[in-house]
Amino acid sequence: QLQLVESGGGLVQPGGSLRLSCAASGFTLEYYSIAWFRQAPGKEREAVSCIGSIGGPTNYADSVKGRFTISRVLAENTVYLQMNSLKPEDTAVYYCAAVPRLRCQLLPQYDYWGQGIQVTVSS
């Protein structure tokens, strides 16, 4: 059974940092492109970042470039999203997603999705 589980969300002040984790079970993340999406209340789901399989390139939405970093730790079968300099507009439910593709895309064309985790940026 393929499963993705997000963790690491919570409440943080503007300018602060959080690291989200996306742990996979039932399959090896190395052979999958992984993406992070987010959805704020009343808004459509948007892609934040993605990383291709087998060391493939990374992509970032313009809104998070220079602030967010996606990475993969093969030994942990986990993908991370390090979020720095957080802004109130980063508040959303964050989802990780996977697809068995070499190169990742910032489009919601992924086969497997996590349940989502809340990130709130507020003072």
Which tags fit this structure?
0% helix; seven-stranded mixed sheet; 123 residues; globular; mainly beta
Can you give a write-up of this model?
The chain is 0% helix and 48% strand. By secondary structure, it is an all-beta fold. Strands 2, 4, 5, 6, 9, 10 and 11 form a 7-stranded mixed β-sheet that branches. The radius of gyration is 13 Å and the shape is globular. The protein starts with a strand and ends with a strand.
Tally of helical runs = 0
Radius of gyration, whole Å: 13 Å
Percentage of residues in helical conformation: under 10%
Poorly predicted regions: none
> How much strand content do the residues show?
over 45%
The overall pLDDT average reads: 95
> Given the C-alpha coordinates, what overall shape results?
globular
Task: Please give the number of β-strands.
Answer: 11
Q: What order do the helices and strands follow? A: EEEEEEEEEEE
Q: Biggest sheet, in brief?
A: 7 strands, mixed
Measured between the Cα atoms of the first and last residue, the distance is: 40 Å
Task: Supply the helix-strand structural class.
Answer: mainly beta
